Amino acid sequence: MNCREAPRRSARGDIMISTPIRRLSRAQKMILSWYSINGRQGLPWRTTRDPYRVLVSELMLQQTQVSRVIPKYAAFIADFPTIQSLADAERTAVLRRWQGLGYNNRAVRLHALAKLVRDEYGGRIPRDYEGLRKLPGIGPYTAGAIMGFAYDSPAPCVDVNIQRVIARIGWDAKRGVSHDEIAEAALRLVTASRSPHEWHSALMDFGSTVCTAKNPGCASCGLRGICASKGARGDENDASAPQSRFSGSVRWHRGQVLRALLQGPKTVQELQSIKSADKELLQEAIAAMERERLIKLRGMRVILRNDG
């Protein structure tokens, strides 16, 4: 679907989504009913209203499968049960506990945010959307997720699953839909919901198990009678599409460097001896990690930074 198309507006300037909204409003009741029976169980972040724990889960879930996050989340919360404990920890301890999730800059950003909240917000994460957006590394989606899952407040929370479900149900694939239209629809739906926490959970589960990016279960979907797409093919640009190779990539080398340095400082030569390492990609990984202040070089020795 073309989510970059300019919004279609009436002569008054209002985005023309009255028909999709009516369709989505009908679908909302059906999705909530589906969720009451088929919602995913055993997700520990679904049972908490602690904004810190919701934040941890949301950062871990970025570009990472749920099955991998569950044990990592539990271990992380066991080590750092509060934002204060995370702020007081050394960065190396945070990176060591994060190891295995990949995209380690997420851990660095989370640690920096925890220290900021401790030092400038009295250890309390803001309870309003605008306040959350002022925190470093908190974008519209994460702010909306905290508002919905921690505070049960009606702020739009649109990830790739939710965007796909709203776009497919509301708009015919041939017509296309803009980001503005999806955002307005998402806000109207969450405002109309009894519980933003329940509604967003239902949408995410429906999008990840039924209305999937590839091979959606349209034939057995209870929304088939009202869905505008009716059997839409998988979207090539969805996050669940095949990703570029990981093994042997720069990202893989970054992970290997971090794993080695968590055991102690290493020389560049020692890092080059990592099994299956490519010297050019390794140098690229080291240079990127130095720019991002994850590591620092002292002569030919490489060490992890504990400061920002």
Short description:
By secondary structure, the protein is mainly alpha-helical. The chain has helices spanning 18-38, 51-61, 66-79, 83-88, 91-98, 105-120, 129-133, 140-149, 160-170, 179-192, 196-209, 250-261, 268-272, 279-291; strands at 266-267, 295-298, 301-304.
Round the mean pLDDT to the nearest integer and report it: 85
Tally the helices: what do you get? 14
Strand content: under 5%
Helix/strand order: HHHHHHHHHHHHEHHEE
- CATH topology title of the largest domain: Endonuclease III, domain 1
Q: At CATH's second level, what is the architecture of the largest domain?
A: Orthogonal Bundle
Low-confidence residue ranges: 1-16, 233-244
Number of strands: 3
Helix content: 40-55%
Strand adjacency order, main sheet: 1-3-2
Overall radius of gyration: 22 Å
| Ends apart, CA distance between termini | 40 Å
Structural account:
This protein has 308 residues and is mainly alpha-helical. The protein folds into three domains: 18-41 and 155-214, Orthogonal Bundle (Endonuclease Iii, domain 2), CATH 1.10.1670; 50-149, Orthogonal Bundle (Endonuclease III, domain 1); 250-304, Arc Repressor Mutant, subunit A (Orthogonal Bundle), CATH 1.10.10.10. The chain is 52% helix and 3% strand. The protein is built from 14 helices and three strands. α1 (18-38) packs across α11 (196-209). The longest helix has 21 residues, at 18-38. The chain is globular.
